[in-house]
Sequence to fold (376 residues):
Amino acid sequence: MRPIQMVDTKTQYQKIKTEVDKAVLEVMESSAFINGKPVHDFAASLSSYLGVKHSIPCANGTDALQIAMMALGLQPGDEVITPSFTYIATTEVIALLRLTPVFVEVDAKTFCIDPAALEKAITPKTKAIVPVHLYGHAAPMEEIMSIAQKHNLFVIEDNAQAIGCDYTFSDGTKKKTGSIGHIGATSFYPSKNLGAFGDGGAIFTNDDELAAKMKMVANHGQSRQYYHDMVGCNSRLDSIQAAILNIKLQHLDEYAAARRKAADFYDQAFAGNPKITTPYRAAYSNHVFHQYTVLLEGVNRNGLKEFLAEHKIPAMIYYPVPGHKQKMFEQFNVASAPMPVTDWLTERVISFPIHTELDEEQLNFISSKILAYINQ
Ligand SMILES: *Cc1c(COP(=O)(O)O)cnc(C)c1O
Fold:
């Protein structure tokens, strides 16, 4: 049996090695390392894949969120509503820009922002909402957009974990996550569903003005060469990364299918077990399984993790400390807000290996070891 990893980017690379190596070599020979043709080609392919007017590649997913918030002209003290149950990058950027993060609960089934909690948290200072499509499952965008419209708020989708996910509206219309809010932000960190061979990120929008502003922000606030109209930052995607991503984008749907197949296998293996709640799949979202995350009930989570490690099976806790309990946010008085759902999830989640290269032998081995521990 091949060794089991949380993510197997090496085997995935072997399958597209000829194409990738050729594309990388071409960039090296052109020596257009920054802003080369592959960057423009990739932006165009990404826009057409997502069904958006503009895609702006940048250096990483954290920058993507930051550029989005800077382009919206949010001011210090403006409140930005976001789930507490997410990766730190989402919430850190809000605080970095001296905006006020307002943490709200997630839905215990979808792990994504709870629209009722979101609406309750809105104040006259609220300017934006940042829903996160956590683990590859879409947040309830239809409800979020209608709340945002009612209260005149911006929506920035954190799509770092869900690129390729389809969202189906109640009238049957389908859109890709990241293309629904005013701005979508994503990451091409190597372990993400569309992963580069280094860092990368992008922002998307259908709004021409916002697109122009985001391009400017990402390029030192420059309107034309050496004329800087606003304070920006320096955030670029390398030509080499763009060339690789352009090839991998063509495989993204196939990658999602492979992840779903592995998830189906686990779902079946754990079906009916009262100690494991398998990932919920809302009818509106076709889960792309960035993570396969279950809830444990009456199981010693650390014990399971250690038992699996003894059998060379990795498992991870995403995330052990939610935003409202991070020291970084103490200044925002977050500790006073009770978050029973988030706390409850934080204590019970565990993520098992999921990626595009898992075979049946590995899946069998992993699930049988998990069950052996749980049913002992
Ligand atoms: C990975 C990730 C980010 C940040 O992406 P980087 O490319 O690592 O900066 C932001 N939000 C979420 C939900 C993520 O998973």
